[in-house]
């Protein structure tokens, strides 16, 4: 079902889910998709998040940024929060409705072959169409990068995002360089020593090796799609040359209470996770971004039985 921007303006109140244990299933997650992730470093799983939940998250982003979807002049700010479209919003109830969606849990559970999972308390992204009359919004540079030093872990690390609206390849879509991932995985990458430049903010591919736009794969998908990628995959987003903004909510899951399955930069123990949720604060690794409100001024999100386990309030 196509998510129109007109629909996103008529958001209903946040759903109060019943406290249930039914986790649902992702109907179309196949062995071929798992193999595609293994071979290429990323995979797209459609129809994971329902349209209403996508709309609710879009509205949360718009309210935070003071953006009106019917007024493009509001998409551009004299002093944007940052140059890459990050939205420092973490504990909004709409975001938690997405995180505890049973199909999202099912997707990660089946991809990771693990049932005992915790979910990340990550942020969002808003990228309006490029405007070359506004320097801050006319940058065509593609910031292909790695977020985490994957060499610190002995097993694969996975990241993820949700397309909250239908996303065209030219619409600031998720983009990546599978050929580099494949070389790293095969042990044939010739620039491993350059990865020593990793720092807390990650590492840009351009600082490691030359590459061209022909190396980049842009990924289009409908609203509600989950994109999961291996942390060894250099990735970013193409410039938005479409006529609508791009909305994304970042989310991933990892084995509960297992530090080997989560990047060093975002490790939290159970107490830290529960405290962040209860006090409505961003995880410490995501704090102090310009425009962030700390603590976030929203009603405490309502969690299902599944949601309480994904936070760490209840044990599996």
SSE layout:
Layout: H1 5-8, H2 31-40, E1 42-45, H3 51-65, E2 86-87, H4 93-99, H5 102-112, E3 117-119, E4 124-127, E5 145-146, E6 158-163, E7 174-176, H6 178-186, E8 203-204, E9 217-219, E10 226-230, E11 235-237, E12 246-250, E13 253-255, H7 270-279, H8 305-311
Antiparallel strand pairs: 1-10, 2-4, 3-13, 4-12, 5-8, 6-10, 6-12, 7-9, 7-11
The total of beta strands comes to 13
* Major sheet: arrangement of strands: 1-10-6-12-4-2
Global morphology: globular
Order of helices and strands: HHEHEHHEEEEEHEEEEEEHH
Number of helices: 8
Fraction in helix: 10-25%
Structural class: alpha+beta
> Overall pLDDT, averaged?
90
Terminal CA distance reads 34 Å
Strand content: 5-15%
Radius of gyration (CA) equals 19 Å
Keywords:
6-stranded antiparallel β-sheet; disordered N terminus; 316 residues; globular; alpha+beta; 3-stranded antiparallel β-sheet
Task: Write a structural description.
The protein is of the alpha+beta class and 316 residues long. The chain is built from eight helices and 13 strands. Helix 3 runs antiparallel to helix 4. It is globular. The relative contact order is 0.22. The N terminus is likely disordered.
Please outline what is shown here:
By secondary structure, the protein is an alpha+beta fold. Helix 3 (51-65) runs antiparallel to helix 4 (93-99). The protein has helices at residues 5-8, 31-40, 51-65, 93-99, 102-112, 178-186, 270-279, 305-311; strands spanning 42-45, 86-87, 117-119, 124-127, 145-146, 158-163, 174-176, 203-204, 217-219, 226-230, 235-237, 246-250, 253-255.
């Amino acid at each position: 079902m196509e998510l129109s921007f007109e629909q996103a303006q008529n958001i209903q109140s946040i759903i109060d889910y019943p406290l249930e244990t039914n986790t649902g299933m992702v109907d179309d997650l196949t062995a071929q998709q798992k193999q595609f992730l293994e071979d290429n470093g990323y995979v797209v799983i459609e129809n994971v998040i329902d349209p209403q939940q996508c709309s609710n998250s879009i509205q949360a982003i718009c309210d935070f940024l003071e953006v009106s979807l019917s007024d493009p002049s509001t998409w551009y700010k004299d002093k944007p929060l940052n140059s890459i479209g990050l939205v420092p919003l973490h504990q909004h109830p709409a975001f938690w409705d997405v995180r505890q969606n049973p199909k999202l849990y099912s997707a990660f559970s089946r991809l990771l072959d693990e049932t005992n999972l915790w979910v990340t308390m990550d942020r969002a992204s808003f990228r309006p169409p490029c405007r070359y009359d506004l320097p801050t919004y006319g940058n065509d540079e593609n910031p292909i990068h790695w977020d985490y030093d994957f060499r610190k872990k002995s097993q694969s690390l996975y990241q993820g995002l949700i397309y909250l609206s239908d996303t065209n390849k030219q619409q600031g879509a998720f983009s990546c360089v599978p050929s580099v991932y494949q070389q790293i995985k095969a042990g044939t990458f010739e620039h491993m020593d350059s990865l020593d430049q990793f720092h807390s903010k990650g590492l840009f591919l351009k600082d490691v090796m030359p590459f061209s736009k022909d190396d980049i794969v842009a990924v289009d998908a409908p609203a509600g799609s989950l994109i999961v990628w291996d942390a060894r995959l250099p990735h970013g987003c193409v410039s938005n040359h479409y006529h609508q903004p791009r909305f994304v909510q970042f989310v991933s899951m990892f084995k509960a209470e297992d530090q080997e399955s989560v990047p060093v930069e975002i490790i939290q123990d159970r107490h830290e996770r529960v405290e962040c949720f209860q006090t409505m604060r961003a995880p410490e690794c995501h704090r102090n971004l310009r425009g962030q409100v700390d603590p976030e001024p929203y009603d405490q999100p309502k969690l299902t039985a599944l949601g309480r386990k994904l936070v760490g309030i209840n044990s599996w």
